[in-house]
Amino acid sequence: MTNRVALVLAFAIGVAAGAAGYAFIVRPTPVETAGHVVTTPAASTTAEPLPEIPVSLGYVEARSGRGYLVQVHNQSQKHLAVLVEIENKTMSQKRSFPLELAPGQLVELGGTPEWIFVSGEVVTVKLDGYETKAFQIP
Fold it and tell me: How far is CA 136 from CA 22, 30, 78, 85, 126, in A?
């Protein structure tokens, strides 16, 4: 009888240790389900928020009177190489292009036959290591 109890006890300890080891080794990972990312609480980590990109976005009426010019202003003392995305949802148009900004430089975009900004368009500025900034022309 003693051997039998010892055997059952050893088996139970082995099962518990195996389960604990499995939980330690196998990490839950994010899973995409129907377009939504589902992450189990064990897999989520608290990441530091990204700093705000040091660029301001605004708009002015185009000198031609047709549409708007979007102003991108580098408010830092560093050279920035950003990615600008512009989107007109009404016309289903979207473009992206790199933009080099010297420290303190203000650049106006638009006012050309290729792209005239109108109300409702969205301008997004991206830079690795920074929070993406978006602006919609009212």
Answer: 49, 31, 26, 12, 15
Specify whether the CB–CB gap between 84 and 100 falls below 8 A: no
- Pick the more confident residue, 12 or 93: 93
> Is 76 or 66 the better-scoring residue by pLDDT?
76
Closest alpha carbon to 100 in 55, 60, 52, 62: 55
For residue 104, pLDDT beyond 50: yes
Scan for tokens 């990204």, then name that residue: 50
User: CA 1 to CA 123: how far, in whole Å?
Assistant: 78
Q: What is d(CA 41, CA 79) in angstroms, rounded to the nearest whole number?
A: 39
The token duo for 86 is: 């512009």
Q: Is the pLDDT of residue 51 over 50?
A: yes
User: 125: buried, middle or exposed (CB in 10 Å: 19+, 13-18, 0-12)?
Assistant: buried
**What span, in angstroms and rounded, lies between the C-alpha atoms of 77 and 113?**
33
Q: At residue 78, does pLDDT exceed 50?
A: yes
- Report the C-alpha gap between 17 and 123 in whole angstroms: 55
